[in-house]
Predict the 3D structure of the following.
Amino acid sequence: GAGVSQTPSNKVTEKGKYVELRCDPISGHTALYWYRQSLGQGPEFLIYFQGTGAADDSGLPNDRFFAVRPEGSVSTLKIQRTERGDSAVYLCASSLTSAGYYGYTFGSGTRLTVV
Amino acid sequence: KNEVEQSPQNLTAQEGEFITINCSYSVGISALHWLQQHPGGGIVSLFMLSSGKKKHGRLIATINIQEKHSSLHITASHPRDSAVYICAVSFGNEKLTFGTGTRLTIIP
């Protein structure tokens, strides 16, 4: 597609529920990143995919968070047993193989609210 | 771990003023990024720098690798420039480390 698409744009869920957030990167971008931005803060890294594999998942806060990218394009971030502290904007970005040369394109984010 | 600090955290200026936002980082990088985020909106990439200076319209970004410092300048500022400006650094194709952002408000 023309840009990075994230769905849904907004998600309200009850504490304890399971949620899935979707990111559709720019076609041909092999690198895909998930970040989380809490109110008033800069984004924080969660996980980075190169192709289908997670090259770096060191930012996932705990084992309730999991992400997949089975075909090397669309990625899904999955959060189990959601907690109120998970409320944030979840941002996705994609880049060509070497982001150092080509930079990043960000999606508009999914605003997750856990009530 | 690379620490990224921005200053000021908040900046209010009159339309037409020259704006400077600063960014410092703690360890060597391969690239520094300036990003813009409007309220409720996504993040837009403004510049990616590894050395020297870049200019796009009224925006200018500079980087001093030796001093680990970058500045973003806006000339002839306009109310539509009001946004959060974020500095982020990367090393190769790894994750970005972000600063906390500078909230810029331009008053007509």
